What we know:
The chain is α/β, with parallel strands linked by helices. The chain is built from seven helices and ten strands. Keywords: ATP-binding, Nucleotide-binding, Transport.
Amino acid sequence: MTVLILDQVTVNIQNKAILKGISFELPPSSVTALLGHNGAGKSTLLKAILGILKIREGTIQLAGNDQITSFLAFKSSISYIPEEPFLLSELTVQQHFQLYIESYQLDPHKTNQRIEHYINTFEIHDKVNQYPEALSKGMRQKVQAICALLPETDLLLIDEPFMGLDVFATDFLIAEIKQKAERGTAILLTTHQLDRLEGLANYYMMLQQGEIIDHGKIENFLELKRRFDQS
Length: 231
Ligand SMILES: Nc1ncnc2c1ncn2[C@@H]1O[C@H](COP(=O)(O)OP(=O)(O)OP(=O)(O)O)[C@@H](O)[C@H]1O
């Protein structure tokens, strides 16, 4: 069974090919690390899957829905934590949570219990009635992460999940990502913090100049890295 299927996906930005014929599949209950140097195309790939960037060629299927012909069903199966927190300036923290409850049609009672748990764990209980401008970057990142964790989607995309988070929040987010994967979600995350991948990721894909140049089980990548670091 497969959650996400990309077939020969090409994305151009300003007439330049940024993604060149990307094909891969993600199984359920998996965490895949999307790796590569700055500018390799990692964020572009996540944005292409989300439909924020239009694909030029190829197809993307999620849980049996085509990105173009079944866009609403496709979109409702994805949750996303962007690299830069993107919160609405006119909504308080609590109103952001409410927005997610409504747009993903979540059970309010159960979800509010989870929100309470997240708020306490991330220590932002005194911020729930504040607007994003009153939050630090790390706090905005925490709010964005909570929003994305609320729905049980087929796919969770995370761009640099640990950027700006303190060690405690990072450990908590890692535990949450693993639990989500155990419940069936396919997770695709980008990171430069390779030391955080052990025990978290199952697979890796290496992007270079818009092409997947290597992929496989994360143990193989980490073993190669260890040998390289020792040499
Ligand atoms: N809006 C844009 N306009 C022009 N070029 C862009 C735009 N967005 C991305 N690019 C280019 O696309 C390429 C891939 O960028 P992308 O942000 O996907 O890289 P990345 O792998 O996520 O890098 P990083 O590790 O630095 O976050 C880069 O060459 C970048 O300059």
